[in-house]
Write a structure and sequence with these properties.
Helix content is about 0%, strand content about 45%. It is mainly β.
Length: about 575
């Protein structure tokens, strides 16, 4: 996502906002320049590239307002409302367009998009507004926009399904995105950055929305960070029965808020997966909040499927209150959630089932590989007979190991190649092979690895490394078990490939645990055999007419047999049966 940090600062010459201008609704296409003529004195241009709106204006149905390049600034007088019943668009542009109210923060503008109107706005900086209101709208999209210093919730939608993507919401007085609890809408909120909203500390989440429409609500790939307001939450969903609400909450990072995600009401089904929900602990009274995930159902139709989330550092891990239908994992579909270090008042609370409803939570990690520890940090029927029973065994265990280890070798001239390391052996040394020797002045070697959820690595894996020497990596689980691996790349001298080699290999596939290389030239041949993942399993030199290689101790599968003679190379792909 492109972040835009500059803000336009201007002193707006205040004119009395009286009356309004309404477009004729006959299919007219307006630019800002033509609007200065048609709508004068409601719209003026005090200088080239800058426009000022002094009075309320309405773009009627069938009419279009295009915020064309090279416009840089639109200044809006105190209390002005811009209503779009037709369409408002932006052209593709390199420079940002600033739409700004009074930068002193004493009064604000409102943008209303309604009555099947279209809005397609990209690369726009909105600041010092009151609210952007979307009601009964048609196609609405905000892409790569910035919203700051709004006096109320920034985007308030009703009976529409806006797409809000790659945007940056920061330092606004209320929620970034909101809707009423008695209206329907299914927004797509994707890849945005929310930071330090709810400056008024009004006990609202940064994303604060009501029931869904027929489509699925999608909240995906966002970064949602509090900072300092102890009443500002992360994501809040509420449905008091107006409609069925289905939502996908996936791939978000939610941290440093009063709470992470909360769901309240009935007729809700949420898939909550692959999120990082951490350090949401700004609530000063744990009895009032601080959960990583909180499900509060007025009926058991308040449901959630919770999978593969990393939840730690919150006052509570997951809380289930009153009524619910929560699936945290079954024997056929384990939860694979990782919960640890959630708690308050020196007590660890990973899951609190404060409800009479039973819950399946099989296949999750609870801060330790010991199943008895899970019982200590899960509060349910065993602790209070009025609570529902949580079925949590078998648990998921976490070990300090790589799931895969691939190194990208980037060459400024040729792109990059991948080296896949062999992890099949239970060894602290892992190997990869590259045919050639990199020039570290022009090459960049960067590891790309898979780790179990919750496992950390030192040094950080995103950093480039000089793999001309072995590199050590220490993996650590949340419960403190560590293991150090040494990654070694076998760089071989680059040689020319044979078109026709005086060496043959048989049999292939290999049966009986042995194959033979026949050397027709009588010259010295160097032989190396690597597994398909790069591990060296055999090495020899020979001037004999034939060389027998024993493969009976090798695992079944594909191997690469490389023969080098006179600076030329021939590689055979061999299947060991």
């Amino acid at each position: 996502m492109k972040r835009i940090f500059s803000l336009f600062v201007a002193t707006i010459v205040s004119l009395t906002a009286f009356g309004q201008w309404v477009s004729p609704g006959n299919g007219t296409y307006y630019s800002l320049s033509s609007l200065c003529i048609s709508a004068y004195p409601a719209v003026s241009s005090p200088q080239s590239g800058t426009f000022q709106i002094h009075q309320n204006i309405t773009i009627s149905a069938n009419d279009i307002l295009c915020l064309e390049s090279p416009t840089n600034d639109i200044l809006i007088d105190n209390g002005v409302t811009i209503t779009i019943n037709g369409a408002i668009l932006t052209q593709d542009r390199v420079n940002q367009l600033f739409i700004s109210g009074d930068t002193t923060g004493t009064s604000f503008f409102t943008l209303c998009v309604g009555n099947a109107a279209t809005a397609n706005l990209s690369n726009v900086v909105f600041q010092y507004g009151h609210q952007i209101q979307l009601f009964n709208s048609g196609q609405v999209q905000f892409d790569n926009c910035v919203f700051s210093n709004f006096s109320d919730a920034v985007i308030n939608y009703m009976n529409c399904n806006p797409t809000i993507q790659n945007c940056y919401f920061h330092d606004n007085q209320k929620a970034a995105i909101t809707s009423a609890v008695n209206t329907a809408g299914s927004p797509k909120i994707i890849g945005n950055y929310f930071q330090n909203n709810d400056l008024s500390n009004a006990n609202v989440p940064q994303i604060n929305i009501g029931p869904g429409d027929q489509d699925t609500i999608v909240i995906m790939g966002n970064y949602i960070e509090g900072v300092a307001q102890n009443m500002s939450g992360g994501i809040g969903i509420m449905n008091m029965g107006a409609s069925n609400t289905v939502l996908l909450v996936s791939g978000n990072v939610i941290e440093n808020n009063r709470y992470g995600y909360t769901q309240n009401g009935t007729n809700i089904y949420a898939i909550i997966e692959d999120n990082i929900i951490r350090n949401n602990n700004l609530e000063t009274n744990p009895n009032n909040g601080g959960s990583g995930i909180s499900i509060y159902g007025t009926t058991t139709s308040c449901g959630a499927k919770i999978r593969r989330n990393l939840i730690h550092g919150n006052l509570w891990g997951i809380t289930a209150i009153y009524n619910h239908n929560i699936d945290m994992g079954t024997a056929e579909d384990p939860g694979e959630n990782v919960l640890y270090d959630n708690g308050n008042n020196n007590i660890e609370y990973e899951l609190y089932n404060n409800s009479s409803c039973n819950m399946s939570a099989i296949g999750n990690y609870w801060g330790n590989n010991d199943v008895t520890h899970a019982e200590d940090v899960i509060y349910h029927q065993i602790d209070n007979s009025s609570y529902g029973l949580v079925t949590y065994s078998p648990i998921m265990e976490i070990e300090p190991k790589f799931l895969y280890f691939i190194v990208h070798i980037y060459d400024d001239n040729t792109g990059y190649q991948d080296i896949v390391f062999d992890l099949s052996q239970d060894s602290d040394t892992i190997y990869g092979t590259y045919n050639g020797v990199p020039d570290m002045g022009f090459w960049q070697i960067r590891p790309h690895v898979g780790l179990p959820l919750g496992v950390t690595c030192s040094p950080e894996l995103d950093n480039p490394q000089d793999f001309t020497q072995p590199v050590s990596y220490t993996l650590t689980t949340p419960h403190g078990t560590s293991r150090t691996y040494v990654a070694v790349i076998n760089f071989t001298e680059a040689v020319e490939d044979y078109e026709t080699a005086p060496v043959t290999l048989s049999p292939n596939p290999v049966s009986g645990g042995q194959f033979t290389l026949r050397n027709e030239s009588g010259k010295t041949m160097a032989v190396e055999v690597h597994s398909i993942t790069g591990q060296l399993v055999y090495q020899a030199e020979s001037t004999e007419e034939s060389l027998s290689v024993t493969s009976s101790d090798w695992k079944k599968g594909m191997y690469l047999v490389t023969v080098i003679q006179d600076g030329k190379r021939k590689t055979f792909k061999v299947v060991n049966m």
